[in-house]
Specification:
Elements lengths: L2 E2 H8 L2 E4 L7 E2 L1 E4 L3 H7 L4 E5 L4 H10 L3 E4 L7 H9 L3 E4 L4 H10 L10
Parallel strand pairs: 4-5, 5-6, 6-7
Antiparallel strand pairs: 1-3, 2-7
């Protein structure tokens, strides 16, 4: 079941770091990973990426795969230059205090799909 980014923000009690005006966008599936190689193998359009990484590789991977939004787990917040990169590519950024396991579980319980198996 797709969820809007606004609903995801509420479920995860997340802070929006960039993209408050884009929270009406629907998300079809989610991927939780700190390995960008797994993300490259799995992610499709309209996907939410949950990660603990806050470096430029995350934004570049999201840009390459047309990822709609990134949620940083464990309360992590990227540096201002990373937020600016996301702004340049219209990628919504949020941060939640939840662990990746908990955040993924909450979204799954709310009906968001994992989108299938990694190939």
């Amino acid at each position: 079941m797709p969820l809007t980014l606004l609903k995801i923000k509420q479920i995860l009690n997340a802070e929006v770091l960039y993209g408050e005006d884009k929270l009406d966008k629907e998300i079809q599936s989610a991927c939780g990973s700190d390995l960008m190689s797994d993300v490259l193998a799995f992610v499709k359009e309209q996907t939410l990426l949950l990660t603990g990484l806050t470096n430029h590789h995350v934004i570049r991977t999201a840009e390459l795969l047309d990822v709609s939004a990134i949620v940083f787990v464990r309360g992590k917040c990227p540096a201002p230059d990373i937020i600016e990169m996301s702004r340049n590519h219209s990628i919504v950024l949020m941060s939640t205090a939840d662990s990746m396991f908990t955040a993924c579980g909450k979204l799954y319980q709310a009906g968001l799909s994992g989108g299938g198996e990694i190939q």
